[in-house]
Amino acid sequence: MDKLAMLGGQRAVPRTRRVLPWPQVTDEEEQAVNRALASGRFTVASAGEPEVAGLEREWADFVGTAHCLAVSNGTTALSLALAVAGVQPGDEVIVPALSFIASGLAPLHIGAVPVFVDIDPDTFNVSADTVERAITERTRAIVVVHLHGLPADLDQIMAVADRHGLLVLEDAAQAQGARYHDRVVGSFGLVSSFSLNVAKNLPTCGEGGLINTDDPRLYRRAEMLRQFGETLAGPSERSYVSHLPGWNHKPNAIQCAFARAQLGRFEATMKIRDANVERLLASLAELPGLQVPGCPADRSHAWHILRFRLRPEAFGLASHQTGALRAVMMKALRAEGVPATHYQLMPLPLQRAFGGAASRAEFPQCYQVIEDSFTIQKAHLHPDAGPLLDSYADAFDKVWRHRALIASYAAAAEDVPPWQQADRLADAEAAELSG
Ligand SMILES: Cc1ncc(COP(=O)(O)O)c(C=O)c1O
Questions:
Q1: Tag placement on the chain: N or C end, fewer CB within 10 Å?
Q2: pLDDT single digits (tens) 186-236
Q3: Could you tell me the distance, in angstroms and rounded to a whole number, from the CA of residue 99 to the centre of ligand 1?
Q4: CATH class for domain 304-434?
Q5: The whole model's pTM is what?
Q6: Which of these CATH numbers, 3.30.930.10, 3.30.530.20, 1.10.10.10, 3.40.640.10, describes 27-262?
Q7: Cβ < 6 A, ligand 1 pocket
């Protein structure tokens, strides 16, 4: 049996098989960026600037909403979405305990209170039940995150929201193009937000965000809040009158032009990615003790992030050895050339930005998933990543052939849970800041 690379053997993923650059930059992106540069109009405040409005129209059509507004990034998109939907300072907003930090920061930025709820351990999304249990008389809205690209149970969650008179907003930053019952996500919530960050499935050459809604009143309000509360609907000369306490969340025309070029190939790229990822997952699904991400038949997955869970009992280990197993497995896979990473070291409520108070008893599934899983990010996004993913399948296969050895290392290893590792880092950073 060939020796594990972490013990000095040959890597299963040849060094010549590299992760392809993402976002793809083709002639189409170059032409789009040059077109924007040549126009000499770089922001929405330049009369007649065509790229921002072009992207907005094309993304509204793609998602199937009446309106879309481009903004500076996905975090501002979500805080603007909450603000125009009518969330007020002091209102409680339900947010998943497992997400990117921005899902919880955006409510805070408008003075609202994020109330975190546990996730489902198979979908990594919130369920209608956990959401309903968190509702109080101060709850105003639910931020539904389609984590890693898998649409949440929108029908059930929207039914809960209807029963309690709550607003539903979609944070679809990771789920561009995913479908629920044949409708694209971002078309269900009263207002929805997307990110165009370089790492996203639909990226730009930097930062950007998009807001979708069917409501013309909310759209116009968002447009004003994007630019200092001013109205652009008046006479062509700027009045400098602020009607609302808005922000400066304007997007950049060059980045919108780049994203339009990406959008032109988006569906074709998505189809090839689906086939590449599904082939990888089908081959990994056979490995004992590995839970691969799945997708219910009534929806499609954007496969933004691939999260794999480990079951220690299949390795002859006890549950308290889960973290050690994950750590050794990640080390073995990385040595073979598979970029196994963490995605979130702690539940969001444990973040110091939110006060840092959370217990395993409150968020058992979120803690469990963080402890027993690892992810693959970005390497699978490029449409030509198929051969690379095939070599990842070979690497998993090789590591699994050595699983008894991996288990023996895990049994002997010290287990420092990810949130404790993060805590140590945070302490060191805090000491540096105060020193
Ligand atoms: C679920 C989620 N929400 C919001 C954001 C924020 O987007 P941005 O990085 O564009 O501000 C991200 C970005 O990763 C995200 O993954």
A1: C
A2: 999 999 999 999 999 999 999 999 999 999 999 999 999 999 999 875 556
A3: 9
A4: alpha beta
A5: 0.97
A6: 3.40.640.10
A7: 73-75, 78, 99-100, 102-103, 145, 171, 173-174, 195, 197, 207, 209
